[in-house]
Automatic annotation (TrEMBL):
Coiled coil: none annotated. It is found in: Membrane. The keyword Transport applies. It is a multi-pass membrane protein. PROSITE patterns: RCK_C. It comes from the Archaea. GO terms for biological process: potassium ion transport. This is Di-and tricarboxylate transporter. GO terms for molecular function: monoatomic cation transmembrane transporter activity.
Amino acid sequence: MSLAALPAQAETIPPVTTGMLVVFGIVLLVLFLFVTELLPIDVTAIFTIVLLTLLSPWTNVSVTEGISGFSSTATVAVLAMLILSTGISQTGIVQILGRKMATFAGNSQRKQLGATIAVAGPVSGFINNTPVVAILVPVISDLAHKGNTSPSKLLIPLSFASMFGGMLTLIGTSTNLLASSVSERLIGRSFSMFTFTGLGVVVLVTGSIYLMTIGHRLLPERVPAREDYIEEYELQNYVTEVVVRDDASIVGKTVADAIDESQFDADIMQILRDGETYFEGIGGKRIRAGDILTIRTDRETLGSLRELEGLNLVGTPPTDSELETDDETQALVEIVIQSGSSLLGETLTTSSFRERYDASVLAFRSGGETIRSRLDNVKLRVGDTLLVQAPSDSIDRLSSNPDFIVAHESETADYRTEKIPWAVGIIIAVVGLVGMPWGPLASATGIDAFAAVDVSIVQTALAGVVAMVVTGVIKPGEIYDGVDWSVILLLAGVIPLGIALEQTGAATYIGSIIALTGTFLPVIGVLWVFYIATGLITSVISNNASVVLMIPVAVKTAQEVGGNPFAFILAVTFAASTAFITPVGYQTNLFVYGPGGYKFSDYARVGAPLQLLLSVVTILGIAFFWGLT
């Protein structure tokens, strides 16, 4: 197509209608809410359904279509796969692979990196990649510290490798399942279990080579190789020991009542009395003269407390080893707030964190910022990393709580290792039955019944859930704990948004405008533009939302430029599942943000060259495997 064709092409752009403007307004509002997080993402998704159905005269979305996301095959399949992933995690098989990886890697950073990629990549192809990273964060953190390597050198590669692996099969990530559902609705063609496995292998190998050669050189060592949380969080001036004088006004008061929290930003973390340390359930313990208190506060507040409450400073600030008692009944650990956590939007005060979990928070990282004071007033978000001091049994409870990722493996984790054969067999059946070539099998065996078999991932995944419960791999109550309901609600909310884009002609309008690039770019160039645009959009909003917004536009653009719509759908799908340049584009990036001590810019430093490299490799791969026209 020549430049001379531009006016003729422009004439094909449809006129803007009121319905289009309404839908564009809703899309912009939803994007604004996603980026600013003024509302939780799942609440924004429900709000989207409400808007679309209330404005149905313009959006063309009926109530039935508005709630169709809840019954979508993609939503149900993701729900089932999250439950299956929970079953796998309960067996401890991924953790066992991680330990074997640690034994193999030893103190060699190159081996540690290679082992991280080798486990996270392939496993993420058959278990949803988000739970895989949640399971492996403590394993990799421990591997790094034991091998005298900075966790910062391994945790971003863990996240990126899980994204590569997620593109090996249909079930590797929720994005693939959603894209398959949208593709079937728009062009009548869905993804099979192994539709893009060939290209997925190419992406995995290319990305792994990049991380092993260039990527690890670009990664900073944000967290020291030797673990010292007091130094890492720069808490030397925020954790102090004081002795209670005879004339202290807090003598006789309980720990809970000793310090007026509305006046002072301070917490009493433990008491040393007559050579014995008290830290568990000390809220009701009464303070005596001579007690040595460990207090979390800043120097200015400490000065006021010393003057008003009758406290004397004791020596230098305590170290990690002093806060972690000799009998190992107490420890410092980092915990990461998971997506779907009941603490999201809460503060340490409103959630009664200390009372609920018998743990004191010394500091936390949020959005790349380390917060050491006024902790009680900060609302918790996904990916926030809290430095917690707690008894060992409390840490074990935190490890088993789906609200958190504890960045260290529990020494007393109770895995159902005897159920590993059942769990592996069920996953193989779930994948194998969908991928089975029933038609050729009918021809080879002469059994005509096979030709009539049409097994979908929804059927096998739901059957797998039943099988895991029946065989005891997962307990009935754990079904609900294993589901990230924010992801389910997000899917249910954005699916009707895609329907509105399609039915009002908004997707056609945008597609016609983008198709103008076809006047000076070949089809493969337009395809590359879609890949880059989807990657950039995914970097600021959910990967699932970007797929729903971009696939209808991609299909219309393909039709305008004479391209292969399926190739354009695949470009959008791969781009949305490989969002490397910000921590907010993909949940796995958020999970490693705090434990790796990363800055926002670290993701772009390592991820931008990788994203550019994969944009070329993926587009060439799509052209080779599926053709452009």
